[in-house]
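User: Can you model how coenzyme A sits in this protein?
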Amino acid sequence: MHDEAPITSDADVALRWARTDDRAAVSEVCRRTGDAGRDATGTLVHGELYGLLWAEQYVAHAPSFALVAELDGAVQGYVLAAPDTAAFETLLETEWWPALRVQYPLPGAGTDVDRRLIAHLHQPPRTPATITYRYPAHLHIDLLPSLQGRGLGRRMIAAIEQRLAEVGCRGVHLGVDPRNEHAIGFYAHLGYTPHRSAGTVLFTKRL
Ligand SMILES: CC(C)(COP(=O)(O)OP(=O)(O)OC[C@H]1O[C@@H](n2cnc3c(N)ncnc32)[C@H](O)[C@@H]1OP(=O)(O)O)[C@@H](O)C(=O)NCCC(=O)NCCS
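Assistant: Here's the modeled complex, given as structure tokens:
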């Protein structure tokens, strides 16, 4: 288990490992950064889908690899990881997606975005072994604008890379929306290698 003590604390910002009661705040950050880094709230009816697809399962099932950033006591950012992507995807097939498939049946209602996200939870793509062989872990990082541009992204990536390395993980990957030029520049600056592939920019790094 991980330490409950904060990793670091500035005057107004604290980084700490997640608790299960962070799920709602983490979900909100995910929605408010979900449209290629921008607020996706107005694009769909079921705004909770963003957190359910890309964030809450890490707090629920991999809290040792979920780091949150609090601004004045409120969670406004996170980095979420799974050290063994293939095992995590298998776990979600039994522990996460089935209930959501009942709750959000196909073809789904709402906007095009709602329907695209509902289709995704019915058939989440498995990460190919060609990626997980050398880069078994994956991560997501999202900070609300209030926390961006002050060095937190770099610190949070360093902290999660260290946590992954501590458990013997030797490589990490992540996917970025090709429209998200800011994030693409950020990962490149932090030493991640980009690989163009259909619909996403894959970044990899050895740890
Ligand atoms: C992308 C994101 C995580 C970056 O975090 P951040 O805290 O804003 O970035 P930092 O301030 O820590 O920047 C770290 C370094 O990257 C550099 N950097 C940031 N963006 C850059 C860019 N677009 N191009 C080149 N360098 C960049 C910074 O200058 C800084 O350099 P330094 O540490 O050598 O001085 C954050 O802005 C964010 O959450 N954005 C919205 C959600 C999002 O897009 N998430 C990613 C989805 S894949």
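A couple of observations from the model: The first helix runs from residue 23 to 32. The longest strand covers residues 74-82.
User: Helpful, thanks.
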